[in-house]
Amino acid sequence: MPTILIDADGCPVVDLTVRVGQAHGVPVKILCDTAHRIEREGAETLVFDKGADSVDFALVNRVQPGDIVITQDYGLASMCLARRARVLNQNGLEYTAQNIDGLLARRHENKKLLRAGKHPKGPAKRTKEPAKRTKEQDEVFVEKLDKIIREDKKRNS
């Protein structure tokens, strides 16, 4: 049985993930740093020192083939894919061997533009507040996570 590992710092779907994991009897581990201690009933919380990528490296060191990782970090997603995990972002996008290279390349190009004083193309930021999640985004995420778990159960039965 897989474990769901959540890169929880800044993750808007911790509660949804725990709920889906519990519904399927799949263990959930929340990984966070000391500045973002996140605990939920029905999940194990693992707390790491605050520091650049400390949670990411801790997660990669724990992930096993077939585990499900929830993250919005392309670099972490890439490392987890190399460990044969299934990786999903907060909007229900599954990172795969087919799409991760393009996502990483786009991130690299955007960082180069920012260093050059240019802003990458995309919607204008009007406020410092993050956009509110919609019910539809939550539904898409839950449906995709549910589908991944059902596929795994079917494959292993």
TrEMBL record:
Ranges annotated as biased composition (Basic and acidic residues): 126-138
Cross-referenced InterPro entries: UPF0178
Annotated Pfam families: DUF188 (PF02639)
Region listing for Disordered, in residue ranges: 113-138
Domain of life: Bacteria
Residue ranges with Basic residues bias: 113-125
Family that this chain belongs to: Belongs to the UPF0178 family.
Full protein name: UPF0178 protein INF35_07840
Organism: Gemmiger gallinarum
Organism taxonomic ancestry: Bacteria, Bacillati, Bacillota, Clostridia, Eubacteriales
